Amino acid sequence: MSKKNKQENPEVQENTAQQEQAEETVEPAAETREDETAQLKEQLAQKEDQYLRLAAEYDNYRKRTAKEKESIWTEVKADTAAAFLPVYDNLERAVKQETGDEAYKKGVEMTMNQLKEVFTRLGIEEIPALGEKFDPNVHNAVMHIDDEQFGENEIAEVFQAGFRCGEKVIRFAMVKVAN
User: Fold this and answer.
1) pLDDT at position 62, please?
2) How is the chain split into domains, by residue range?
3) Which residue from 11, 26, 72, 95 lies 20 to 30 Å from 131 (Cα-Cα)?
4) Do the Cβ atoms of 127 and 169 come closer than 8 Å?
5) Distance of alpha carbon 24 from the chain centroid
6) Is residue 176 a contact partner of residue 141, using CB atoms and an 8 Å limit?
7) pLDDT grade, residue 18 (50/70/90)?
8) 125-179 architecture in CATH?
9) pTM over 0.85
10) What is the pLDDT of residues 65-90, one digit of tens each?
11) Which pLDDT value is given to residue 61?
12) How far apart (Å, rounded) are the C-alpha atoms in residues 39 and 31?
């Protein structure tokens, strides 16, 4: 029996050695899978971060271009209105002139009203001046008078109407300020 045990022992020893090698092989394979998983998770996190940054960058770009577009539109409207302001001034002078021809006077008034409507549709408004407090942000004082009839820094007369488009002043109102 001892011969048989000895013969089985080498087989058992061989099986034990194979099992140990298999266990050693399994352990590095498990470690390799864990390493691969960790690397893949890290790569996924990097890609997600890149995606979020790209999405935020695109959102900022979209907002910036929309803002620039609005700004350009306002600038173009203001420049166009500024080109028509001399026409407005001349029509205003023509309306104030006395004339014997009622049809002519009515035609000038209609033209003036039509120009005012166009300005209103474009969002261009006249800066209120007469009787208002002087505001250097929208008024240009060219004369100063002392008159008890008016309050302090009150606008007594408007020489030229001012206009603005939103918050942008196209032309300051040229005024005479009292006291």
Assistant:
1) 97
2) 125-179
3) 95
4) yes
5) 63
6) yes
7) low
8) Roll (2.30)
9) no
10) 999 999 999 999 999 999 999 999 99
11) 97
12) 12
